[in-house]
Amino acid sequence: MKVITMESSVFTALTEQIAEIAAHVRAVSGERKEKSADRLLTTREAAHLLNVSTRTLQRMRSEHRIGYVVLRGKCRYRQSEIDRLLADCTVMEDAATPTEMKRNHTLRTGGGKPKGRRT
């Protein structure tokens, strides 16, 4: 066994570099986990999560309100797309700015589109 000696400043710099490399590896592996966690849901699963019928989900697709993937002729929905839709449709209780208040009003009143008309 060989003994290697070095100055404490060099040792400190070396351990800092190792810590940076370890943090980078953790960040990259975390990104992969997040991407793999974005699973594909069937129409029935997505409708259940959104608490809507499968027909309503089909309308949302037709209106381009929700993104979807077609695999072998069947529609699938990414979990992240379901989460995005829920976040976009969430009314904020503590709306402080006029923009947030307007957004809440638009959500509560159905988006300002007249019902029964197609655009």
TrEMBL record:
Signal peptide start-end: none
Name this polypeptide is given: DNA-binding protein, excisionase family
SUPFAM superfamilies: Putative DNA-binding domain
InterPro entries: DNA-bd_dom_put_sf, HTH_17, SinI_DNA-bd
Keywords: DNA-binding
Superkingdom of the organism of origin: Bacteria
The keyword Mitochondrion appears for this protein: no
Helix-turn-helix domain span: 40-89
Renumbered residue ranges of the record's region Disordered: 97-119
GO molecular function: DNA binding
